[in-house]
Amino acid sequence: MGIIAKQSVYNVVSIGFAFIIGAANMVYLYPNYPGKEFQGLIIAVLANSNLIQPFLSFGVQHTLIKYFSDAKSQVERDRLLWFVLLFPLLIIVLIVPLYGLYNVKILEFLSGNSETVGRFPFLILAIAISTAYFEIFFSWLRVNLQSVFGNFLKEVYPRLLTFILLISYAFLWIDMDAFINYMILGYYLRLLIIAVYSFYIYLPSFQLKLPSNIMDLLRYSALIFLSGAAASFILDIDKSMIYAITNKENVAFYAVALYIASVVEAPGRAMFQITSPLVAEALNRDDHPRLESLLKKSSSNLMVVCGLAFLIINLNLVDFYQLINQDGYASAISVVVIVSLGKFFSMSVGCLNNIISNSKYYSYVFWFSVSSALLAVVLNYYFIKAYGIVGAAVATLIVIVFINGCKIILIYAVYKIQPYNKKSLSIVLSLFVIYGIIYFIPSILNPVLSIGIRSFLILLLFGIPFYFFRWSADIESLLNRFKGRF
């Protein structure tokens, strides 16, 4: 897994930097300058654009990853590349007029009867179009095993853009309308940058003919589109329903909590960008030993890294929210714990989702996603009404366990493989023991010092079973290489 380890390290660094910038945006700049209501509005607008985006890309970014390594010639690969570039244009040409006619009803459905979100229908559509094409070009880079710069643009760029806009707003250089206009401009600048870089990495010769397996491509794209739409629905419906059922401030509190919890899955986001094309290649070559190796190694590595992140995040929550010192935000502490537990379980299955999406059993993803989306709507509706944002977190955890449980059962049934081994149990037990020990250590007066001391103790206790049980040869190798440089 040399190439996986190398690019994953670079991607983790990018995502880590992105989280630092994003944390400054979410917990300091937004609440102190535009305010919680504007923060909730922007989050709701982006959430709605994410719900619309799958309808525009039609899943072709995933189609490119699955079929690129299966193409028999360079001509076929070039035809595939032009297909994924041009086909969404046809979708956009068909959808934009319909959206123009029915955007009010669409946005009412997505975010309740919120008049505020409804004021920005074409902002939502514009961001959705730019994001759809960005994902296509990012997949272009991933199949060429060049994920690092694309990952920087995906993770760091939008947070850095928001940071610059918030600073400009704080110094009264721009108003809220200019903030929104510059946000749109920034998203399209990102699209231009990744398009130029993708053509620099590989410029396909123009092909007028469609790929020879066009019906397979359309069938796969349609199912992945439906699955992706359901998956985006699951990711963002909680924020939209909180906005509709409660108020804007609760969206801000919940979004910050989700942002903190998402640190747990950051290593997985970095790894999957490079494992996905490798999994597709193993499946296309019918290399089951390679497939099982990728699954188990990715599971072990992510359980170690994400488990450590889980401990550091959740055992420092009280001090972290004291550091934020913003009214109302600490009400979402329970949300962080509940959602991060779900994130850890999701990461523990390794590259399972990559295997299903790139295999002949990809149609099951659609049924899993649709059933999970329906479950998410029902659970969020009742739980948010009963328990507020904590109810939304519980609904999210249940949906995560449900959909990943279905995937584990499917892969074991068809390939007789599963992500876990004996080391997995020792990792989970160690996490429980360390959590139980550190949880009862009281905070001191200075939250920064308290976070530093507690994090050091977590690393110390975590290192003992890590080396004793030899959880991950890949991570040990990276640590030894790092130590060898100093």
What is the domain total for the residues? 1
Helical percentage: over 70%
Instruction: Using the CA coordinates, give the radius of gyration.
Output: 22 Å
Number-wise, the strands total 0
Mean pLDDT: 82
The low-pLDDT segments are 110-114
How far is the first residue's CA from the last residue's CA?
Answer: 24 Å
Give me the secondary-structure category.
mainly alpha
Tally of helical runs = 20
Q: Which descriptor suits the 3D outline?
A: globular
The H/E string reads HHHHHHHHHHHHHHHHHHHH
- Biggest beta sheet summary: none
Give a description of the structure.
The protein is an all-alpha fold and 486 residues long. It has one domain. It is 83% helix and 0% strand. It starts with a helix and ends with a helix. About 1% of the residues have low confidence.
Task: Summarize this structure briefly.
The chain has 486 residues and is mainly alpha-helical.
What are the main properties of this structure?
486 residues; mainly alpha; 0% strand
How is the topology of this model organized?
Layout: H1 2-32, H2 36-57, H3 60-68, H4 74-111, H5 115-118, H6 121-143, H7 147-170, H8 176-201, H9 214-245, H10 248-261, H11 266-284, H12 288-314, H13 317-324, H14 333-348, H15 352-358, H16 363-387, H17 389-415, H18 422-439, H19 447-468, H20 473-484
Helix pairs in contact: 1-7, 1-10, 1-11, 2-4, 2-6, 2-9, 2-10, 3-4, 3-6, 3-9, 4-6, 6-7, 6-8, 7-8, 9-10, 9-16, 10-14, 11-12, 12-14, 12-18, 12-19, 13-19, 14-17, 16-17, 18-19
